[in-house]
Amino acid sequence: MSPAGPFTVKGLSCVRGDKILFAGLSFELGAGEALHIRGPNGLGKTTLLRALCGLSRPTRGDIRWGGIKVSDLAEEYTADVAYVGHLNGVQGELTASENLKMADRIFGRGVRVASGVKDALARVGLTGLSDRPARYLSQGQKRRLALARLLVLRRPFWILDEPFTALDAASVLRLSSLIGEHTSAGGLALIVSHQAFDLPGVRDFELARFCKVRA
Amino acid sequence: MKFIHKYGSPKRFYALAGRLVPWFAGITAILLVSGLYLGLYWAPPDYQQGDAYRIMFIHVPNAWMSMMAYTVMAVYAAIGYIWNIRLADILAKVTAPLGASFTLTALVTGSIWGEPMWGTWWVWDARLTSELILFFLYIGYMALQASIDDDRRAAHASAILAIVGVVNIPIIHYSVYWWHTLHQSASISLTSQPKIYATMLIPLVVMSLAFTFFYFTMLCVRARTEILWRERHTDWVRKLLEAKS
Amino acid sequence: MSYGMFAAMRAVFSRELLVFWRRSTEIMTALVFFIMVTTLFPLAIGPERHELMLVAPGVLWVGALLATTLSLNHLFASDYQDGSLEQLLMSPYPLSALVLSKIAAHWVLTGLPLALLSPLLAIQMALPMKAVGTLVGSLLLGTPILSLIGAVPAALTLGVRGGGVLVSLLVLPLYTPVLIFGAEAVAASAGQGFASVAHLSLLGAFLALALSFAPWASSAALRVSLD
Q: A125 partner at 20 to 30 Å CA-CA among A189, B243, C127, C145?
């Protein structure tokens, strides 16, 4: 994994329609650190993550990766980010292993290692299901497939929006340890989750601090 | 840039537009009345078409305005999209129905013009066909805006549509004119209109200016309404409404 | 980096084909529609060859155009719904290149079959044999333009109410030049006008224009839709 620059956010604000979701949001995340963004539903956690990924244009704010503005870096920044959103990004017609192989070819940096796919599937517990079209998988299995993509792409910065949804207790533990391994190896992780999970050293971040209370 | 920021705020534009509306309206009224007088009484009847040609004084300016309005709309939309200026988004959104009305007027008057000559209410004349396609471009733009709830996404999506449209308009225009000449039996053409004499040119210009100022007037009026709606939760709008009641 | 980009484009292209192949019902929609049009017209107009021949270029071209319009919804919609489109925007490679691959795959699956099927339908519409070559040529040049131009409204209407009908409305004015020159080319070689080479070259010019403009415009549109 390439050396991961620190991720800094200063004065971020997002407006949706005529509502200011949050303003003046700032934090910093360094290599090997994980941040757990908490807050009640509807506060704008998903909007925040999408703005940090580069999918959304924030209204105002300074987002930097390794000291350089993310808007200046463009593709160099997205090359370092692995985003798992609410949608799984899993194509139903392809099998689990085909999904991962394609992801590697489309998003990866050409280091095609077939064993990487098998290994990733094993680490999320999908070994026996690798040759079924993904649409036959259960919700939890599809979620795990989406997370397996993180392992195949091996990007330094993980941005995860409710990754534990539809996962059973064993899978939650498995995923928490995967994130732990990722940060121990120097990666960064940003997690939104309303579910509690066990990850040593993770910092909490309350989004509500930056949300204006509407009159 | 400072100028844009100064008047780029909807609140400031609201005040500015409010002061301009009476002036624009007044100029429009004067131009319209004089244009109509010049067109309907002063200009002599045409050698070939008699008095029927006079509808040209409404048809042609509206056709010109329909093209101008689309271009202007695309420019506003592009400015709003590239530099994230909300006022530009508002001006673009508000121009669309005005442009569509100009197009519709051009179509209807064109159809009326054609009827005494050809005995039918519609001919596939090059200009009318071109106007019809332009009408669809406007309706498409307005439909896209209406179907997206989020204002910013609606504005940016329709900006892209407007830019694609404005680039295509010359191509469409050229294609339609070419298509028409290919199939032309020389008679079916409003564009082979009477030679323009000075006596016709003057009312035409006056009417065009009248409709231009009409556009400015209505732009200001509609923009003010749109601004009030979009800013309805802010303090200055609430104070304004309280003051009125 | 460029090696990686072309590999990624090829991957997107083959993924599209693979997915489409397995979702076989969708391939047929455009073709079936095209066949329906050319079957219904003679029924409506009458079997008189002379009359059919006159309208054949127009009917064939309009049929191909409407069939393409119908298929535009498949371009981005399912990827938008399952989240793969979002992931595409997070790719390290330029989005316009990947979108171009998607559009190319879409054309291979809709426009190309239409063009290849057209000789059979030309026979149904009593088109003179000498014009069939131009028909296929005009469709081979024209349908990629339709896919390219159509990608922009398809991208703009993702997740929007009434998306399907809206796409048709948005796309109609933009398609008129292609339709005019495409149908004219065929009519010309059927002996109803000037030589068709000029029309085909103009279509070629439109194609070049669309290739340089459309991928950029549709990626901008995708970013707006996924904002």
A: A189
Beta-carbon contacts of B19 under 8 Å, excluding residues fewer than 6 positions away, are none
**Is B25 near chain C, with CB under 8 Å?**
no
A186, burial (CB in 10 Å: exposed 0-12, middle 13-18, buried 19+):
middle
User: Beta A60-65 vs A68-69: how paired, if at all?
Assistant: antiparallel
Say whether B230 and A18 touch across the interface (CB within 8 A). yes
Q: Does C89 touch chain A (CB under 8 A)?
A: yes
Q: What does the alpha-carbon distance between residue A33 and residue A35 come to, in Å, rounded to a whole number?
A: 7
Work out whether strand A203-206 and strand A157-161 pair parallel, antiparallel, or are unpaired. unpaired
Contact between C152 and C214 under an 8 Å Cβ cutoff? The reply is yes
Q: Residue A27 is inside which H or E element, if any?
A: strand A19-29
Number of domains in chain C: 1
Sheet bearing A19-29, strands edge to edge? A19-29, A7-16, A60-65, A68-69
Chain C residues within 8 A of A85 when measuring between CB atoms:
83, 86
Q: Are A186 and A31 in contact (CB under 8 A)?
A: yes
Domain hosting C172: range is 3-226
**3 state DSSP class of A16:** strand
Kindly report, residue by residue over B6-25, the tens digit of the pLDDT: 557 888 888 888 899 999 99
Residue C172 with chain B: CB contacts under 8 Å: 136, 140
Read off the pLDDT of residues B32-87 as tens digits, 9 standing for 90 and up: 998 888 888 887 777 777 777 788 889 989 999 999 999 999 999 999 999 888 89
Q: What residues in B contact C224, CB-CB < 8 Å?
A: 153, 156-157, 160
- The pLDDT value recorded for residue B8 is 72
Q: Are A160 and A187 in contact (CB under 8 A)?
A: no
Q: How far apart are CA A190 and CA A9, in angstroms?
A: 12
Residue A66 DSSP code: T
Detail the DSSP E strand segments found in A99-197: 157-161, 188-192
Interface test with A, best of C14, C26, C78, C90 (most A CBs within 10 A): C90
Q: How far apart are CA C69 and CA C48, in angstroms?
A: 30
Pairwise CB contact (< 8 Å): C160 & B172: no
- Which residues have a Cβ under 8 Å from the Cβ of B108 and sit 6 or more positions away? none
